[in-house]
Amino acid sequence: MKLLKNIALSDTGFVFNPGTGDSFSVNPIGLSILKDLQEGKSEEAIRNRVIEDYQTDKETIEKDLYDFLKMIEQFNLTDYHE
Amino acid sequence: MKKQIYERPLIHRINTGMMNKFGTKTEYAPVSHIDGLAVKDLIKEYGSPLFVLSEDTIRNTYREAVRAFKTRYPKIQFAWSYKTNYINAVCNIFHQEGSWAEVVSGFEYQKAINNGVPGPKIIFNGPDKSDDDLRRAITNNSPIHIDHLDELYRLTELAEEMNKRPNVAIRVNMDTGIYPMWDRFGFNYENGQAWDAINKIILGNRLELIGVHCHIGTFMLSPQAYATAAYKLSDLALGIKKKFGKTIHYIDMGGGFASKNTLKGSFLPGADTTPTIDQFAESITTALLNAGFTEKDLPLLVLETGRALIDEAGYLLGSVIANKRLSDGRRATIMDFGVNILFTSFWYDHKISPAQEFSSYTEDTVMYGPLCMNIDVVRSHITLPPLKKEDHVVVHTVGAYNMTQWMQFIAMRPAVVLIGTDGKSHLIRNKETIENIESSEVMPDFLKKHALASGILK
Q: Which residues does A contribute to its contact with B (CB < 8 Å)?
């Protein structure tokens, strides 16, 4: 899954889609995942990175990441062509 | 490098132009302790969910209410409304504070007797009183509040049969300017039914009319309605004095004062809209003092306040069972308590706080209970931090009606704990067990066996 190329991410967690005019707010961990996606990281790589950085376990991040990725897909922030 | 504290990733769309002028209320200020005891320790000791009552809050609220009325009117008596919360420990706190009992069934009457309340201090209300209930109340000299003519006639027969003169009051309903008008309890004031009943009682000369009573509504947000009711009851009492020369001992204003809960559909939170107890006291006592009683005939003012005295003292502690995402993208959180034990969630948007620290990021959430029933919605919309499985929450202002109207439906009812003024937790009602439930069931012999006993699926 990849983020649309034109999505603007600010360090304060403000997300802007210039294509639709929609804006979003994310928490710090959500922002770090969006940045990972922008860099083209795979889901597995994101999971491992989060486990490395945060006090969590594989099962928790697996279900939370699944939910988060579904949400950004639903918000039309992902690129279907890639 | 030290790992950061984990919180699940959140994203939400920013909508503009949809807020009301007060913004939305976010309940992320954690409530980790109740009266100095940690929520997680209480749950560890007594299980989850768990009802918790604060003795301190009950006593302080009661004393505040007594102060509000006593400073304005010389003769005051509270009678604890058993149906609001009839756990014996709760009733006894009120009785220790000097409150009588107000009961509405034979079952509640027996509870009051078991709690050691003397008969003359048990006010017997309600539309359903059996002959046995009435006989017992007559024997104990309890004030019986007559609800309908059938009861009046039956009571007269029983008085003759027992050769006693029961103490009675009549229940009066009336237009107090509020909608909907409650006209199901007692006799109507405006159409003359109340006067007819009074004439029948006094001229019948078998019953001793000692009071007049009303119960004008529930969760009342208008103190003025009580002033109207107090004026109309005073008019009856003064009319009785004028026509029969008889002094009415008490005027009972019933219950109905609102608590600080927020009714569903309210624009503002309950804490901002509910009148204070002083406002109710001011309305009622001013009407009584100005009604025209002489100092000698000033009636005792009886109050059957329930909800406003206990609601804020009650908390429900619960835990998260699971999180899920609904088809429209909304977050849903499933709790281990639902409408089965939090009956008042049908009426209120209860304030719910997390019981542990969170960041300031929140999500719009639908809060469901654990029942396999579509109606089991605790809050249809609440803004909460990202709760995860086994996190705890505190539901506020649940002391009234939940511990009496709860249902043993699908799951069993939880324990109730009182945090005493000694700062310790005391179990006041055990968690229900399957043995409690099944002890009332009877299995006929012909149904004792069935072919599924082998337990093998074929």
A: 15, 22-27, 29-30, 33, 52-56, 60, 64-65, 67-68, 70-72, 74-75
Query: Which chain A residues are closer than 8 Å to B390 by Cβ?
Result: none
Model confidence at B271: pLDDT above 90: no
pLDDT tens, A35-52? 999 999 999 999 999 999
CATH code of the region B55-311: 3.20.20.10
Distance in Å, alpha carbon of B364 to nearest chain A alpha carbon: 13
Assess whether pLDDT exceeds 60 at residue B116.
yes
Whether B14 sits inside 8 A of A23 (CB atoms) is yes
Ordered by start, the domain boundaries in chain B are 33-52+312-431, 55-311
Give pTM, 2 decimals.
0.91
DSSP code per residue over chain A: --B-TT-EE-TTSEEEETTTTEEEEE-HHHHHHHHHHHTT--HHHHHHHHHHHBS--HHHHHHHHHHHHHHHHHTT-B-TT-
Nearest to A54 among B6, B323, B388 (CB): B6
Domain boundaries, chain A: 8-74
Task: Determine the average pLDDT of the residues in B289-299.
Answer: 96
Q: What interface predicted TM-score (ipTM) does this complex get?
A: 0.95
Residues of B whose CB is below 8 A from A22: 13
Question: Is the model's pLDDT at B71 over the cut of 80?
Answer: yes
Residues B114 and B94: their CA atoms lie apart, in Å, by 15
Alpha-carbon distance B176 to nearest alpha carbon in chain A (angstroms): 50
**Nearest by CB to A27, which of B13, B14, B361?**
B361
Q: What residues of chain A lie within 8 A of the CB of B386, using their CB?
A: 27
- Please report the DSSP string for B52-65 in residue order: EEEHHHHHHHHHHH
CATH number of this structure's domain B33-52+312-431 = 2.40.37.10
| Mean pLDDT score, B306-310 | 97
